[in-house]
């Protein structure tokens, strides 16, 4: 199919008055607003469309390996996924599959999906500098990139510094979009500001009130200066709307960020920037989460240009690590009683301590513990067989952090 574009939007707006409007003003709203913030920190990820299995491998490189990842492979730990389209994908099957399969599957597991646009699409749009033009163009962007695919909002990638009329136009469209999506709109649609810049630019200071979340492209920087960078945003947004992000190593990439490489290992992960971003918090506050770019490269090392499947070990584990740093208890582990009625095993968060507490008639309360492996697997042998109506409650926790809700295991003769 041919993806719908907004290339003809200028013609749509030719009937509007071409008079130049006064410079657009900042969106109103409290900098401390927590509208659309979540109770727990979020995990977000940029998904590169040109690496989806529905797109030919020649779409954005000369690498010979076929694509192997589907967007619906993203794990439920990813709360928000960005459709990041920078390849030659216009005629690919991806867009139909996105609408008909990927978005419904991701929504079913609790993952929201937004579309990434570049700032130039706003700043250099072929529209007059009028409020009516801004509103018409903003609606066209939503009608083109959100509504047809059932998406949950828009992300604007800001890596340049608009000036003059471009700045005025960008602010005007941002404010107009803020009436349709984001916290000012009263809808549940997300509006993200994604940038490698600080928070004291004229553009950001004018549009901050529109944004659901602000994503800082902090690739390779580390956390040494994160507090001072955060302070440039602090007057305009609440901490729960700020997410620093890292990059996985892309194919044929000359920049070695060193943020996260190889399969996640609890022993070495703390030395990587990605882990530091997941655990870092603004002074006296809790951040909104973290994000990763090129999530389909989770597990790769820099210099490995092959295209292979990923098990998303970094994303799954950093999501748990981030919850711990924010004082959020991990999810309950899975637990299964073996046929011997003594061995209990399952999957938890890598590096967590799993504890089993057995209670019930005919048994003194007893506990047993184990530490999960790199893959999250664990196994515990009870001191004797579990019988009816005894119950084994299984929880997990990290260090002195809060314990998860329990998973319960019981012996059920009818299931044998």
Structural class: alpha/beta
Q: Main sheet: which strands, in order across? A: 1-2-3-4-5-6-7-8
Helix content: 10-25%
Average pLDDT across residues? 89
Instruction: Give the C-level CATH assignment of the largest domain.
Output: Alpha Beta
- Give unreliable regions as ranges: 1-26, 28-32
Distance between the termini: 52 Å
Please describe the biggest sheet, giving its number of strands, its sense, and whether it closes into a barrel.
Answer: 8 strands, parallel, barrel
Corresponding CATH superfamily of the largest domain: Glycosidases
Number of strands: 15
Question: Which architecture of the largest domain does the CATH hierarchy give at level 2?
Answer: Alpha-Beta Barrel
Give Rg in angstroms.
24 Å
> Please, how many helices?
9
Strand content: 15-25%
Organism: Microbacterium soli
InterPro entries: Big_6, EndoS_F2-like_TIM-barrel, GH, Glyco_hydro_18_chit_AS, Ig-like_fold
Family: Belongs to the glycosyl hydrolase 18 family.
Protein name: mannosyl-glycoprotein endo-beta-N-acetylglucosaminidase
């Amino acid at each position: 199919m041919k993806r719908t574009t907004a290339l003809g939007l200028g013609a749509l707006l030719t009937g509007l008055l071409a008079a130049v409007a006064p410079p657009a003003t900042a969106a109103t709203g409290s900098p401390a607003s927590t509208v659309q913030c979540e109770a727990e920190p979020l995990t977000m990820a940029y998904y590169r469309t040109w690496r989806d299995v529905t797109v030919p491998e020649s779409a954005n490189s000369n690498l010979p390996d076929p694509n192997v990842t589907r967007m619906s492979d993203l794990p439920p730990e990813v709360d928000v996924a960005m459709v990041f389209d920078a390849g030659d994908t216009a005629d690919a099957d991806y867009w139909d599959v996105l609408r008909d399969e990927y978005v419904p599957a991701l929504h079913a597991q609790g993952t929201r999906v937004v579309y990434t646009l570049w700032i130039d699409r706003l700043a250099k749009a072929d529209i007059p500098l009028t409020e009516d033009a801004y509103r018409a163009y903003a609606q066209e962007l939503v009608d083109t990139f959100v509504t047809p695919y059932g998406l949950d909002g828009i992300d604007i990638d800001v890596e340049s510094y608009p000036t003059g009329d471009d700045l005025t136009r960008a602010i005007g469209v941002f404010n107009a979009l803020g009436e349709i999506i984001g916290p000012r709109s009263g809808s549940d649609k997300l509006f993200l500001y994604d940038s490698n810049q600080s928070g004291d630019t004229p553009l950001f200071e004018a549009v901050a009130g529109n944004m659901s979340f602000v994503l800082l492209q902090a690739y390779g920087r580390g956390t040494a200066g994160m507090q001072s960078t955060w302070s440039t945003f602090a007057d305009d947004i609440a901490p729960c709307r700020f997410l620093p992000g890292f990059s996985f190593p892309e194919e044929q990439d000359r920049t070695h960020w060193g943020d996260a490489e190889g399969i996640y290992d609890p022993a070495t992960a703390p030395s990587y920037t990605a882990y530091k971003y997941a655990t870092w918090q603004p002074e006296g506050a809790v951040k909104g989460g973290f994000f990763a770019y090129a999530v389909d490269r989770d597990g790769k090392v820099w210099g490995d240009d092959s295209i292979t499947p990923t098990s998303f070990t970094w994303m799954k584990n950093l999501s748990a690590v981030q919850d711990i740093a924010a004082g959020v208890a991990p999810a309950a582990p899975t637990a299964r009683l073996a046929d011997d009625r003594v061995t209990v095993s399952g999957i938890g968060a890598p590096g967590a301590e799993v504890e089993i507490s057995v209670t019930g008639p005919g048994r003194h309360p007893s506990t047993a513990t184990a530490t999960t492996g790199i893959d999250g697997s664990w196994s515990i042998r009870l001191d004797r067989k579990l019988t009816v109506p005894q119950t084994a409650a299984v929880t997990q926790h990290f260090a002195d952090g809060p314990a998860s809700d329990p998973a319960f295991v019981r012996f059920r003769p009818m299931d044998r």
